[in-house]
Amino acid sequence: MLLCAVICALLALCAIAPAIIRGGGTFTLREDFNSQQIPFAMAENRAIHAGGTWVWNLDLGASLIRGFSYYHLGSPFYWITLPFPPEAFPYLTGWILILKYAVAGAAACHYMKRHVTDWRLACVGAVLYAFSGYQCANLFFYNFHDVVALFPFLLAGLDTAVCERRYRPFILAVFFNCLLNYFFFIQEVLFLVLYYLVLYWGKDVRRFLRDGGKIACCGLLGGGMAAVLFLPSILYVVGNPRVGERSLRLFFDLPRLLLVIKGFLLPADPMHDNAAALLGAWDSTACWLPLVGLVLPLAYVIRKRDRLSILLLILVVISLLPILNAAFMLYTVDIYTRWWFMLDLLLALASVRVLSDPGAYPVIGAGIAYAATILLFTASLFFLRAGDGSSLVFHAGRLAVYSLIALAGAVSVMGLLTYADKTGRKKQAAAVFAVLLSVTCVATTAMIIRLYQRDAGTEWYLKDLARGASLRVIDPQYRYRESANVFTLPGEGAGLSAFSSTVTNSVIELDGLFDYEHMSKRMDKDSIPGLAELLGGRYVLRDDGSVGEADACPIGFAASGRITSEELKKLDREDRGVALLAAILVPDGEETLTPDVRSLLNSLPEISEDAIRDSVQREGRENLVKRLVAENSERAVSDFSRDGWGFTCTTEADTARIYLFSVPWDAGWHATIDGVRIEPVRSAGMMLLPVEAGKYRIVFRYRTPGAVTGFVISLCAWGVFLGFGRYEGKHHPEGNRTDRRSLFRIFLND
């Protein structure tokens, strides 16, 4: 394992070091990598060191756990960076990425050694996995490499539990993978179920069921150990409006089907508008193995009718049918193939099993079939057309290079194996194979990095990142009128929006009031007249590096009117922000409010759509916004302060009032008025708080829903695990070692 880790680290270094040198010590790419992965990591670092549960600069504010557990929060690779200041992260990304490649190789080698007798072949399989097309395509999804690195431990742990009756490795693997990323862990669980069903089903049904029950219990224990992050994250996902969407397409359309086939046949292509052919979504459709492509896996499937072949065929069918592929996304999306790293591991295993005895497999026939398919596929792309008649090829030269790389790999594999078989010079052939494999891994990885960095504006990006990291809170009652992650997340410059799919769910509700819907990008609040002012967007970043000021309401102020959602939706989109400046939105389910709150709400004058339209026409939209901002500011709360735990303020009025706080509503918010607890009311995705006449001190505190319960579950689960470990170590110190070799027979059984 250590040698394999070193090999993968050296190969990754050769591919990544040039980019680090070009970046002056930093490693950046483009799009998601630059606008999400780096700013998010810096924001997490700053929030963790500051302490607290709430982050003010992810959109309008978000839970630290819910906002970032999908990205880095549970990653051991990210924890390494925490002792460093946030500004150091761009300088660490390249080196941490190299470490991820090394761990991916070591983990895959650990898994492979259980299924091949030659450790050198295990190393080859590990390199195939660590530098697969999936890894290349997903370079700018920095956190995906964490998942790829740790997943093989999960399969190895399952094999150990079933065949050796040693359960602790599997439990620990479940813990780390569950803690790492809840999104991928759910897909891994589904894959594990399929893996167990296909590989371990046998004539002894009772043993199969008994072992399955034990594995399930171990999985629950490992998941329980990770509940401190997993439970709050799942509760967040369940509350996301997109979870209710369902996708049940039976077949892909032609371009999408071709994209899947391309992912099997050719080296990884940059995603989306950087692609050489077949414009796809950000769905990670790439699983090509360096040098060998599909030659060796295809030869294995043709020759063998064992369980590994069956499992590979099942996974290919799942990949080609959206109604099956969508199962990995629990039928919320049907186009993602982000589970293909698991397929890559089995393709790599099939490849090294062929290399263990190439004479027993139809390598030449598989290679010819693979090469012919590549030629036919590539040629067809130039003749076929998308639904709108446009071409499916965007960079013909690059597509040709991909095809030549795949063809050269196939020819090399066939030639080397034939040479070794005819001459008996296996060592020489193996040495050439190792060199070609290493060159292919470095070249394809370096190429994809270069393509992602093309026209990325790295120099300007680093300047913007440094400026964002330098921003500080000027007045806690206001935000920066900015939406770019590179400015709002690295420092303390809380903005109005964010490019993120893990914002507070109520922010999606606010977007919906303006007919905006997007999976990952939140609405630009400054694009709606009056909305940026309502949300406290006072500070403006100027091109000369200075910070200007604009009219804006404070984060907390007393409402002067009310409007129903029905009346609001009658207005043009451009006038709805003005309406919310003039009146708070009457909460849905008004009948569920307490009588006091309902009475106070009804005491406010109701604003109609006609009144808003008349005011806009009479005063002009710009002047009306200015007047409403001034009036709301006169009713602002005082002594406002905020930190990672929440915010506090003071109210003083002669009459009872309802205060609007432009902070996203979340079930974790709890408010007290002079120590008396009161629940905030949800309105337009924000929070309302009724306050009686007089002077009061208001305290809002945020506790992540499920975090305390998750912590208790984790604590108990760790206690059970330690007790179980002591029992297993005392009574079964070696497990069932006599059954270990059965692993080599599992794939050979029908």
Radius of gyration over alpha carbons?
29 Å
Strand arrangement, major sheet: 9-10-16-12-13
Instruction: Supply the number of helical segments.
Output: 31
**Uncertain segments of ≥5 residues (pLDDT<50)?**
738-750
Global geometry: globular
- Sheet with most strands: 5 strands, antiparallel
Helix fraction? Answer: 55-70%
Q: Overall pLDDT, averaged?
A: 91
Distance between the termini: 31 Å
Structural class: alpha+beta
Share of residues in strands: 5-15%
User: Based on DSSP secondary structure assignment, what is the total number of beta strands?
Assistant: 16
How are the secondary structure elements laid out?
Blueprint: H1 2-22, H2 31-50, E1 54-55, E2 62-63, H3 64-68, H4 76-79, H5 89-112, H6 119-130, H7 133-137, H8 144-164, H9 168-180, H10 182-200, H11 205-225, H12 227-238, H13 254-265, H14 295-303, H15 307-320, H16 322-325, H17 340-355, H18 363-383, H19 396-423, H20 426-453, H21 458-470, E3 479-480, H22 485-488, H23 505-512, H24 531-534, E4 537-541, E5 547-549, E6 556-558, E7 562-563, H25 565-570, H26 573-582, E8 584-585, H27 595-602, H28 609-619, H29 621-634, E9 638-643, E10 646-653, E11 657-661, E12 669-673, E13 676-678, E14 681-683, E15 686-691, E16 694-702, H30 707-731, H31 743-746
Parallel strand pairs: 3-4, 7-8
Antiparallel strand pairs: 1-2, 4-5, 6-11, 9-10, 10-16, 11-15, 12-13, 12-16, 14-15
Helix pairs in contact: 1-5, 1-6, 1-20, 5-6, 5-8, 6-17, 8-9, 8-10, 9-10, 9-11, 10-15, 11-30, 12-30, 14-17, 14-18, 15-17, 18-19, 19-20, 26-28, 26-29, 28-29
